[in-house]
Amino acid sequence: MTRSPLSKVLQDRRGVSAVEFALIAPLMLSCYLGAGILCSALLAQRKANHVASAMGDLVSQAVTLAPADLADICTVANTVMQPYDTSSTSLKMRVSSIQEDGSGNVTVGWSYPCQGMAQLTKGSAYSGPAKAYLSPNQSIIVSEVTYAWASPLQTYNISWLPGSHTFTDTFFLQPRQSQAVNCASCS
């Protein structure tokens, strides 16, 4: 008795592994790419966090600073962020001295922006949460970083992969050597 061609095909098991792989391969590739992109985003977020911490730490160790010193600190911050994009469209930084005048008014003592972040106006009221960290007649250093992370695969326009995300970090540090870090030339 001869078997029909259809029964031969239904009983043949030689290509099962190839078919299973063809069905699972897109899922495996998606998981691999997703894990890589997630790791890249998490590392960029950690670096942005480290930049904010390092900037604030360096400023809080000084007694007096000049704009040239702050420019050097911004250069160091750019180096810390490497190998990620540090152009002014991606990485924006600002370090400021915030003061409490003894009667509950919290104002900006000085502010120094790096790479396009807006500068706070000297003497203006500060509306951030720094008041919780301040005692009367005290000063605090506020270090802020905003980083616009872009996926390495963004140029391929794959709809199910995240394209970009903005990370924002703010650090509050007390001056270590004096009551306030002075920057007479800063506005």
Automatic annotation (TrEMBL):
Record keywords: Membrane, Transmembrane, Transmembrane helix
Family annotation (InterPro entries): TadE-like_dom (IPR012495)
Domain TadE-like: 15-53
Transmembrane segments: 21-43
Pfam families: TadE (PF07811)
Protein name in UniProt: Pilus assembly protein
